[in-house]
Amino acid sequence: YQRRVRGREDEDGPLNKEACLLPGNRLVAAGYCVFGTACMMVISTGNGVNGFTLDPSIGEFILTAPNMTVPKKGKIYSVNEGNASFMDAKLINYLEVCLF
After folding, report:
1. Is 52:63 a contact under the CB 8 Å cutoff?
2. 61, 41 in Cβ contact below 8 A?
3. pLDDT confidence of residue 1
4. Backbone phi and psi for residue 11, each to the nearest 5 degrees, phi listed first
5. Could you tell me which residue, 4 or 91, shows the higher pLDDT?
6. What angle do CA 29, 33, 35 make, to 5 degrees?
7. What pLDDT shows up at residue 6?
8. Which of 38, 31, 42, 36 lies closest to 65 in space, CA to CA?
9. Does the CA dihedral 11-13-19-25 come out positive or negative?
10. Tens-place pLDDT, residues 34-66
11. Positive or negative CA dihedral for 10, 67, 95, 79?
12. Alpha helices in 8-76 (DSSP H)
């Protein structure tokens, strides 16, 4: 689940397709939550990316992964290849580099 946060200038306007499909340079914040044995929220307000894990004993998210970055090389390759027919050629080329 992903939710895009609108900026102040759009707060009074209608929530429609045009209000949600704004250029990235107008983005105020972005984030997502992952639910499983733990609940993690990852958010960026334009100054780095931070991960927070829900502590159910106090009902609050605790900063557990500050300044998250993508490693130069990883051990795991994970992508929904079922959507490959909808992917841009540049993305497919990049994924092939990651795969091999």
Report:
1. yes
2. yes
3. 37
4. -60, -35
5. 91
6. 175
7. 47
8. 42
9. negative
10. 888 999 999 988 889 999 999 999 999 999 999
11. negative
12. 17-20
8-30 confidence digits (pLDDT tens): 444 556 667 776 777 777 777 78
Q: Which amino acid is at 49?
A: V
**Pairwise CA distance, residues 28 & 5, whole Å:** 6
Q: Are 68 and 44 in contact (CB under 8 A)?
A: no
Start-to-end CA span in the chain (Å): 30
Q: Give the amino acid at 82.
A: G
What are the tokens at 31? 């984030």
- In sequence order, what DSSP letters do the residues of 36-92 get, joined into one string? SSSEEEEEESSS-EEEEEEETTTTEEEEEETT----SS-S-----GGGGGGS-HHHH
Q: CB-side exposure of 84: number of CA atoms within 13 Å? A: 9
70 by DSSP, 3-state: which?
coil
Q: What is the mean pLDDT of the chain?
A: 81
CB under 8 Å to 36, separation ≥6 — which residues?
none
